[in-house]
Design goal:
The structure is a homodimer of 339-residue chains. Chain A is of the alpha+beta class. Chain A is 33% helix and 23% strand. The first copy, chain A, has helices at residues 5-20, 67-84, 104-120, 172-181, 189-199, 205-214, 227-238, 253-257, 265-271, 287-292, and strands at 37-39, 45-55, 88-98, 124-132, 138-148, 163-167, 219-222, 241-245, 278-282, 297-304, 309-312, 318-320. In chain A, the strands form 2 sheets. In chain A, strands 7-9-6-10-8-11-12 form a 7-stranded mixed sheet, sandwiched between helices. A 4-stranded mixed sheet of chain A has the order 2-5-3-4. Chain A is globular. The interface between A and B is large, with 78 and 77 residues. Strand 1 (37-39) of chain A pairs antiparallel with strand 2 of chain B, so a sheet runs across the interface.
């Protein structure tokens, strides 16, 4: 009993999607169904806008993700960019290129994932576009949020001496992807948790807000490409370097205990990517204040004047730390995950 | 001397794109290069947001469009949605899925088309995403604009007795597409003009603003799917019907004179699509005021209480008018053009 999208047509499909989203709200007096959505921001707010595209075969594999999780993740990776600016998410637009292989139920399930994630973080679906795609499922999400004027945390404010923090744990998502690709079933609860972190990441919205409002964070980014890459972005845009301590890396007990992984836990943490945790810097004298914010952050290193990145091992050896995360278009780049 | 994107990498490509766009402006204090763009609207404005996806092989064919025109059109179709709400365009985000066949020069040329079009209509590129696509070139554009609060023209305000207007001429773009597909060269200036209208449509931003500010327009939509389809959207959302007069249809002299077309000019005008003209309604007693706005609009019919659409021929015969424009996912739908 799978309904083909051609049985419903484009406008029938839009009508279905409209039902899963709200047609209009106080903040979105005109939602899905007109030429453009009409949206209200708080007076004097700064608008935040970000967009991310996910393509089947490049960012995800329909053999290893269900449609609900894919919808959730498509929203979550964009919400994470709003979190990294310290903003409040408000509105979401989704453009989908839908291949003939997907059914109406698939698309409905995808949108259930999107709207469930949005709702959990205070945002609403207000518009989009649907079209036919010859082969791959293509997802493009735009997230709009807001922040107080002059209160946004960019990537460019890190200063020498600042401590480097990261929320949550690192490496779980990349380990989950490896387990998924190897066909691991999630009977083992540890494996299940790593896979869940890969399929349904949690954007750190509340943490980003607290850090922004505190006024003591000098730079922030979300960990999407991998810690070494994303810290590289902060260093480059701030004109500084960094020293990271291997033994400070926050590793989950699941990542430490699952022994079917091909690489050491530290490697997943340093270059795995897709953790969607917040990586931020703050002056060293503010450490107690940061800890009092209860954002589950760990100090993993310090910003240096010297413009290079290093990893200090448990035994005190110093190694250069190269950005090792994911970058599109690199030769020999392996595929298979979203960022 | 074509540079492959893999020689440059994702971050190198983003740096190139950033150079074609402005890094920050008064209205966009944080543009390309951070987690999200930070944008300022006029105090008390309503934010307008719209998104459109274009996929190679579905919406365009790289054999019949150059990259500059494709960039222009990707921006223009989204600008047209802002025009249809009576808004001022402000900010643009582009997400691209780039196949291995495209070079750095291709993408640079694409962005030159995007930014040339944006600049002409007062908007700036503030962010986006680039990723690898296995086969098709995928383009997703989000346009943000603004309008005075409580001043937006939706699709749902048409009233029985209102006159139906359309700006410019209809059918040129669809005729241009047919000529392109048939391999017509643009030596004939008439053919060239029709093809240009297809490849580089002009969004009716100034016209939309004038119509909005006038306060006498009851509903508006842009002609993207085709007149009969788009008028159908107004009728459905307003709960009314329409009568359209065949001999009032604004046809360009190029469309009337090119005789290598397979279908009559009227047919292109009624169901061709992609004209990106503004279709709107206004009370009959306001006709002189509408004409004084100088938006190059033609009266093509009237809104009726009866909820169906009819075409009145030159000789006075009345035929049912079915929505005949483009709809994605319809069985047997021919491909090859953007909307």
């Amino acid at each position: 009993m799978h309904m083909r999208i051609s049985d419903l047509g484009e406008f029938g499909l839009i009508e279905r999607i409209r039902k899963t989203a709200s047609r209009s709200t106080r903040r979105a007096p005109i939602g899905i169904g007109d030429d453009a959505a009409a949206l209200l921001l708080s007076p004097s707010a700064t608008l935040l806008a970000t967009t991310d595209m996910l393509i089947e075969g490049v960012h995800f594999d329909l053999k290893t993700t269900d449609l609900f999780s894919l919808g959730w993740k498509s929203a979550a990776v964009n919400l994470s960019d709003i979190a990294a600016m310290g903003g409040e998410p408000r509105f979401c637009l989704t453009a989908l290129g839908i291949p003939p292989s997907l059914t109406v139920e698939d698309i409905t399930e995808f949108y259930r994932g999107v709207t469930t994630c949005l709702k959990k973080f205070g945002a609403v679906l207000v518009g989009g576009d649907t079209c036919a795609s010859p082969k791959e499922f293509v997802i493009s999400v735009t997230m709009l949020g807001e922040s107080e004027r002059k209160r946004m945390i960019t990537r460019s404010g890190a200063k020498p001496g600042d401590l480097i923090y990261v929320t949550g744990t690192l490496g779980d998502s990349a380990a989950g992807l490896e387990l998924l690709a190897a066909g691991a079933k999630s009977r083992n609860p540890g494996v299940g948790k790593l896979i869940e972190k890969h399929l349904r990441p949690v954007p750190r919205i509340a943490e980003g807000r607290k850090l922004n409002i505190s006024g003591i964070v000098s730079s922030m980014i979300d960990v999407s490409d991998g810690l070494s890459s994303d810290l590289g972005h902060i260093c480059e845009q701030s004109g500084v370097g960094a020293e990271v301590f291997a033994d400070r890396m926050p590793l989950s007990k699941e990542l430490r205990s699952v022994n079917s992984l091909a690489r050491p836990a530290l490697e997943f943490a340093l270059s795995g990517g897709e953790d969607y945790e917040l990586l931020f810097t703050s002056p060293v004298e503010r450490e107690r204040e940061i800890m009092s914010l209860r954002v589950r952050a760990t100090v993993i290193g310090a910003i240096t004047r010297k413009k290079s990145m290093h990893l200090v091992t448990e035994k005190g050896a110093v190694h250069p730390l190269a950005p090792g995360g994911y970058e599109h278009f690199r030769r020999g780049q392996q595929r298979g995950s979203a960022r």
